[in-house]
Each structure stands twice: as C-alpha cells, then as structure tokens.
Task: inverse folding
C-alpha cells in the first residue's frame, strides 16, 4: 500500500481590474493592478492566459516574500469598477493587511 499525503489548499478570491481590447487579429488582456499582460485569439482565451500569468506572478511574489507589498494595495482599496477575481491560496491571506 502506498501512503501519499494529499495537500489541500484553501483559496481566497481577490478582485483585480482587467481590461481587454482587440489588437489586430488577437485580444490583449491587461491586469492594471499588477502590471501583467497576456494575449489570446479570443477575448476569453486572453483572459484565461492572463489568469495563468497573474497566478505565476503571485506565486513568484510569495516565494520572494513580497506578496504583502503586491497585494496589500489591491485589498485596501475600496472601488467599484468591473472586477474579475483570481484565487490565491488562503495561507497567503494572513500576512496581508485587510
């Protein structure tokens, strides 16, 4: 019998501002909160690719110990533009001021 540990990560949603626009034959998606950009053949593909890029950006920030500096201003603001949400591990939530 093989004994494996299953790691379960709880996630928390953080609202981020995303702008999409058509550029030639492709769509470009901008995360203006984090200065992350991606593209795709369709608007949905551009958003999906952006979510992946943002997740990688936040993962690297977590590894470097700078997620508080990156996410703090996003969490602290109280605006109501059209927002998308990205999920991050709940374990990152505690060092971030709310």
Result:
């Amino acid at each position: 019998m093989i004994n494996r540990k299953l790691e379960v990560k709880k996630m928390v949603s953080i609202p981020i501002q995303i702008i999409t626009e058509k550029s030639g034959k492709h769509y470009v998606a901008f995360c203006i909160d984090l200065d992350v950009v991606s593209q795709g053949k369709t608007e949905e593909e551009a958003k999906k690719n952006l979510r992946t890029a943002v997740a990688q950006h936040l993962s690297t920030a977590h590894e470097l110990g700078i997620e508080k500096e990156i996410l703090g201003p996003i969490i602290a603001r109280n605006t109501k533009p059209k927002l998308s949400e990205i999920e991050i591990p709940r374990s990152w939530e505690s060092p971030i001021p709310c």
User: Anything to note?
Assistant: The domain at 17-79 is CATH 3.30.160 (Double Stranded RNA Binding Domain). The radius of gyration is 16 Å.
